[in-house]
Amino acid sequence: MLEPAGSNQSAQMRCVRMDKKKHCVKLSVQPSRALMDEKFIVLVQNAPPGFQMTIHSLHHSEDGHSWEAFGHYTADATGTVNVSQDHSVGGTYSGVEPMGLLWSLRPVPGSKPHLRFRKMNVQTPMEVTISVYQGHQTVFVDQVQLASVLVERWYMAPGVRRIPVTESNLTATLFLPPGPGPFPGVLDLWGGGGQLVEYRSALLASHGFASLALDYLTPKITLKTGKMVENDYFETAYKFLQQHPQVSGSRIAMMGLSFGTTMTLKMAVYSEVMKLSCAVCISGSHIQPVNATVEEIFIMFDTKSEKTRISEENEVIWHDVVLPVPTDPGMKADVGRLQCPLLLIVGEDDQNWAAPESAQDIKEMMEQAGNSHLLTLLSYANTGHLIEPPYTPHTRASRFKPVGSNELLVVLWGGETVAHSRAQEDAWRKTLAFLRENLYSRKNSAVTFTSHL
Amino acid sequence: TREQAYPPILSVYPSRALVDEAFKVLVENLPPGCPVTVHSLHLSEDDNYWEAYGHYISDHRGSVSVSEDVSFGGTYTGKEPMGLLWSLRPVPGSRQGLRLRKMNVCTPMLVNISVHCGHLVEAFRDQTPLASVLTERWYMAPGVKRIDIRERGMRGTLFIPPGPGPFPGLLDLWGGGGGLLEHRAALLASHGFVSLALEYLTSGEIPTARLDYNYFEKAFNIIQDHPLVTPDRVGIFGLSLGSFVTFNLAAKSTIINPRCCVCISGFHCHPYRSMGEMIQTNLNKLHVDENNYQIWRDMSLPIPSDISKKVDMGKIKCPLLLVCGHDDQSYPAVELAEDIAQMVHAAGKDHLLTKVFYHGTGHMIEPPYSPHFRATTFMAKTKPKVILLWGGQTKPHSDAQEDSWKKILAFLQHHLYSTPNPRAKM
């Protein structure tokens, strides 16, 4: 249980070596347990004044890879470094970056290339080890830490309930906030990679929305029958939410990213069954053959492979596939018919989808139709395709297998890390405010919501 | 109802925290000027419900901020960000003399916070709230390790902070109620101290065993010997009888040298072989109040001037922080502390002693936001059951818990982490 006394000796030396007066550096992160979208304060105290140090973060992902980030700091006259207030002069981020230790996480040297951070099990926290090293280091493998603490980052707030949904042939997971409800609902769609991706819904439920993460490309029914779902699958999901005793049937939103945007706009504009209170569309477009099935639309993107470009690093660029923006109204969702508020979020460096160009066209169509007062367009410079919840590490290109293909490609998503990370933070805050405004607020009061974010 | 169409949004930030961290409770999306009750509910490990509540009125934006707004009634009033925790008390109909104590520190204390329409005073659990959320209050920070210690005849639990160390250490001693209480040691480890919660009396029995100081010295050595502890930076933290033990070790031990000591609600004068003997000898001074709760305070008065009946506090060699409440009804803690101060002064060692006294504060000075209990069952297995009056009024006692903890942590940080020098700030 207790180790031999010999190791005590070298442990003590660590303190002494720094300074004759035997300073023992104290590291704290507050809060040590938080939601994924909450900020923390990393504080180092009791270092010698002017002491150079590296603050390092390390995460071992579910798929067995190690991710790290670090900043170079110098302690002030009181021997303190506060990451929220002080400048990093080097590392994976620089300047005053309270959350740089998370958003600048990248695979450690020697890792396989083209990895993407994604937590699939949302019932456990993302664990990050924050440590302090002496000096301005860039390699950490054989280094001795001066101090280290563990931080938990959660997708689910306490009391959030996770409920797998399989009725009516749906493959979905419902996340319910704690409390009696009823809660407004969100139908949450990811993109062309398929699978049941839960983390955004878990986070939405932690903010008071009953959120249904829906697998619509690889649901069990498709795997069993080989047939892709049709419009009624989404309508069934909508009705499931609408009829749920803890969901306010008249306040349901739909949110999609990438191909999920295509589906969201399709349903928002054309569905007779779905009466959405609002829609959020991230990194997607309205370009799609009208009156086509889901399968027809999905295949349509595949067949345009002659517009695929390959970068110098052999990354697949699908940006041009939907371009040029069609003039034929039969090839675009008729957004002029939208009756609910729409939040469009696009990255101007999106290499996977011509989202900014589509957004421009959507704006023009809505202006012509007279419903552009419903549109909020957030366009972020130097931001790529994968606009994820805040502090999710940015991936410029990663391995991707689209549904229906056996080929594992390296796809270029785009984005420059600092700008992309700022965009994620801003877009999420505005997404939550948009959802609250349209799903919670009272009609006659101008409600502003205080945010802890 | 129309109101139900727009439910309020209730949030607690942070939703997961250490027990000594503050939170912000916010209600939004209410109608403006709406009276509401914010309510907290906790089901303890021994299956009792505890609750607290405050009465608020929303502003023009329909918001209530517990951190910033005034409570007009309930278990606390005024601007009290943490009132929903420190004013927790057993729900109506509960047994007398209950104490809220978490024994399993590996899981969080779960508190349900909810908001109700109107200013309610009772029957909360019969009403569906407008909204409710769950918050977790932890004694252990992530990465803190808990290790059972059963060696050299010791019985205790060691808590180790995360990281390579080395760390300073603390021996954590509770009072005459006995048993193994881990919650303070777990919290201290969450603040960077290797802490050993030591059991030295079996709970439920009247302590009749003579205190064997050898046992405590061995426990102190166990901490020093741990590879993650800096051996010359180990202190002692005591409460009540634990303080008495600490005074003895600090003044008399030739084997151990604590770097500093924290003593809450202590007494240095106990010329008896047991609590039982103390009571027998002073039965005429054992009073009861109107509820038949025992008041032990006068049994320790007057404080003898004969030094042979006391621990000679002039012999201490390390810094000592004394924390006491003026309304301590089990021991005259302030008078005792002043007596200690005189002895320390006579020995020319004023620089070692810090005294902090709080008005309206009783004997059981716990970590912040712990619910105050004015009287609880003590030594429950005795027949008849004894309920002791600890004293304190809830609001000032809770303020004292909050303030003293900050001072205690700063004191420990200063003496166990930093090298004390004239320029260093506390």
Automatic annotation (TrEMBL), chain B:
It comes from the Eukaryota. Residues 20-151 form the Acyl-CoA thioester hydrolase/bile acid-CoA amino acid N-acetyltransferase domain. Coiled coil: none annotated. GO terms for biological process: acyl-CoA metabolic process; fatty acid metabolic process. Transmembrane segments: none annotated. GO terms for molecular function: fatty acyl-CoA hydrolase activity. Residues 212-417 form the BAAT/Acyl-CoA thioester hydrolase C-terminal domain. Belongs to the C/M/P thioester hydrolase family. This is Acyl-CoA thioesterase 16. It comes from Sphaeramia orbicularis (orbiculate cardinalfish).
